[in-house]
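Please think about what follows:
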Amino acid sequence: MPAHGCHNGCVKLTPRQLVVRGRELAALLLRSLERDRLVSRFVDTYAVEFERACCTAYAGQYRETVSNIRRESLLAMTVWMEQELPQFVLPATGRNPRPRGRSSVRKPGADPKKTVKAAKKKPILSPQMQESLNAVYDEFLAALAQAMEWPSREIEEFRRDLGLYHKLMAGKPSARAQCPAGKQLAAHVEGPFVDRCGVLLDPSMLDKSRLAASRFQNQLHIATQSALNQVFSSRREN
């Protein structure tokens, strides 16, 4: 059954097509990191720009830094993907629906009155819409874990850190809101990725490493948007 195009690249997809696209998203995001050696080039460039040869001088430490930042990059890209996924999966309504159940649930310690007030501003998704979003997201995580060869413990840790990202980003504008169509995401020296990546990169020079991380964040967002555009192209027929 072919996919039917709709506004802003959104397509009506069958359950099988949703699963396929979830797996393709995982493959494309991983490929974008590895193809151009984005993480290792980021570390290398930082070491040269700020004369921090210690960040690349020791092979074991360098590999660990690159591996940790790659994982942090996948966390950030997964969160952005989830934020923007409704734009590609759900029918166009002129609004920006957000999925219930994950990032939209009330966090522990949150003010119930404020949560209820905020919830009233968000459109309620039908079970079918929510199921479509869940199908892509769950298959994406499964494919990502399989490609990275994570044991169950690491999968749970990754999911836990995703929850932490959502908590830290609660109330902040999404990447799409910060980055209108056709424009690059502004480099904001703040947020969970900037903070965590800065510590992993060079904890003794946080001002510089966080600044570098904010620039790298922009590259990762562009790669995420490119993957979404490619996977959900309205010209595709399967």
